[in-house]
Sequence to fold (550 residues):
Amino acid sequence: MTNKKQKLELTWIGKENRPKLEPRILLEDPEKTYHAPHQITKKDVFYNKLIFGDNLLALKALEHDFASKVKCVFIDPPYNTGSAFEHYDDGIEHSLWLSLMRDRLEIIRRLLSDDGSLWITIDDNEAHYLKVLCDEVFGRSQFIGGVVWEKSDSPRMDAQFFSSRHDYVLSFAKNIESLTFKKLSQENEELPRHYDKKDEAGRSYYLKPLRAMGGQGDSRVARPNLFYPLIAPADGTEVYPKKQNGADGAWRWSREKVETEKERIEWRKGKAGWTPYFRIYADTSVGRPVETVWFHKDVGSNRTSKAEVKAFVKEISQFDTPKPERLIKRVLDVVTNPGDLILDSFAGSGTTGAVAHKMGRRWIMVELGEHCHTHIIPRMKKVIDGQDPGGITEAVGWKGGGGFRYYRLAPSLLEKDKWGNWVINKQYNAAMLTEALCKLEGFTYAPSDAVYWQQGHSSEQDFIYVTTQNLNHDQLQALSDEVGEGRSLLVLCSAFRGKSDRYPNLTIKKIPNAVLKRCEWGHDDYSLQVENLPKAPPKPGQQALFEDEQ
Fold:
């Protein structure tokens, strides 16, 4: 009997295993935080984030506060070239790599805004597996395209077969219908005549009807999700997309895109009533389309990027594979605007942050290795001080400014005592404990100065209170009375006496028992470092030989 629920998917050993990640809090280290001494422009950003720690745990730590807020993710993950997996057989190495990438991609998708996009550099070794994996995580319809980047400007004469001259850049959208994809600007290009309008900032544009026209996607039947009312702001009239013959039509944009791009919509009133149009700006539409081959003369090569890194690090390892600033600039030119939030969770030498900073974007970078301290911090200090003349500095007119805050991941909330029992980590003070439990329970950490039990909230009427006290009936009753009707309070305490159902507006839980099964506690490193990988099983006869040598 055929299983009708079967689906096309990529399978690998251990795919069903998923880590139960602990949502750690972030601890700022003021000594490593760095800011320009004064504001240089009104658009300077001082609150970028540099996070030192495992990138999977860091992504989980960011999810609570940054879900659906990141406009662009650019990552340059380890390419799985075999050096880390030389002792594995039968595809185990690919399985490990795919699982580790899948776990990260799923959180990245949740972090992306509805109009956001993911860009991944990768080589032939895993590119095609990664494409299929991203199809599963994002949906095959969200594939924007694959770019061939000319990473080398000369052949390797010692190559046994092909001398590899390119890498790939795979790009996926969170919601491709909401994605704005700009063209590449061309210098000294005259604007076509139909750009006959200017906005308040002097930007040229023209108007196009928001109703879809032509093709199979302009009807309610073909695109039912794009048939919905818009409200004319002048008088509150509901306007539906209607074709000229009066039949139900469809809008070009989703509801989400209408909301995020509402400043581009203009309304015109005619005999048939209100009609919405949208602005098409010259600086986002005029120019040449982005092609799928990016030459080193346009975006730089590996040689370019290593020269850029050597400007602030004297020696660069042969295993360092930084990307040129112009490569990342092209990505940000195409899918982002000033002020957008950019994330790189495999930060390496910090190129993504450097480019985002110079282009007026906000950024978050995550790096586990010492590159965080030996490469990224020195590089970003030079950028902030306006002492980095290389890369895209001249092209974007960068003069310095802004800053970043340095964070490290907090240790695991729970640790084992000498008897093997899970207890609250001794490194946690009261504030850290409260913030960590807020994140675990899905509350926003926001302690009130006026009301001691209002330490966080999930809504205007739902609060959380964390204490290491043992609470008795009188204390719980007093809490219940203060919370009052119409509000609710989650109480996390070491212990309590009394029946919890006596207090209808309180939910009472003991810590750490209440959270023991939530996560994998005490697991600090989910990285692709060789020493963190499972031990390969010995080959037949190998164990006996090893024992003889002992």
